[in-house]
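Sanity check

After download, print the first record. It should look like this:
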Amino acid sequence: MKYTDLGLSNTNQMFANAIAGHYAIPAFNFYNMETLSAILRAARATHSPVILAVSESALKYMGDDMLIGLIRGANIHPDEQIALHLDHGTCIDTCRHAIEIGFSSVMIDASKLPFNENVNISKTVVELAHRHNVSVEAELGTLSGIEDENTSSEYSTYTNPSDAEKFVTQTGIDSLAISIGTSHGAHKRKSDDEELRFDILSDIAKRMPNFPLVLHGASSIPTHLITTINKFGGHISNARGIATQQLRRATEMNICKINVDSDLRLGFTAAIRESLSENPGNFNPREYLNAAINQMTQTCIDEITNIMGSNNKIN
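Expected structure tokens:
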């Protein structure tokens, strides 16, 4: 299936606009109707372009037919600038499959492999994807933390600026995910004083002016959501996200896509815990799931406006 048949766009023009305008496109992960609905409501309410990100495990969870059925039911129009993106594709076959079923953008993540192997695999995906006008993201460097079975590592390695320049030239990718201190999951920093490695980001941006760079593991981990979860029976301790001001600073330095997953998970969980605690006799899923949609929608709106700066950028 061609992604254009679903009203989707690839990310090439989105990123060019974002770099020129010094903002970032939000890439929100989704895995069911509720998360998809919240993301689209927020994007449409703020007139923001958006990337609908689906990890390998989320694709397996939903299944091809359910996923594409949800996208078809969303009635997406090309003017809305909405991309469907495979997040952390682990192999060539996974990327090929995503392209075949209608994804407009794919990420090949061979970052744990030696440099030359990463180059060869990423280049193969580029050759495959570009035949279908599908955008390709790859990663150089390793993020620590755990999001799901596709994104887990006990260690991190910063991206080498010189290697980044060589990697982009040798692969022909459309965007590069770099490691400058973000991490997967809800525990991104050990203290509030930790800063991203803006020296590395600056070096990469100078070497590759106007080339799209991506931040993974960049959820802000809103404290009010952690508080709500813990108030109503949860137990999440020492959770710290990436500070809003640091993320905004990154958008001034070629970061034109920021990935967010944990924040929506937290919003979903906080709303359901609060709803069921305050209405213990309720067993109607539509009521507490609607509360979750509303909370996730607000979370997306807040981050589009205060972090991404992508509101009112549909043109």
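If your output differs, re-run the checksum step. Summary of this record's structure: The chain has a mean pLDDT of 92.
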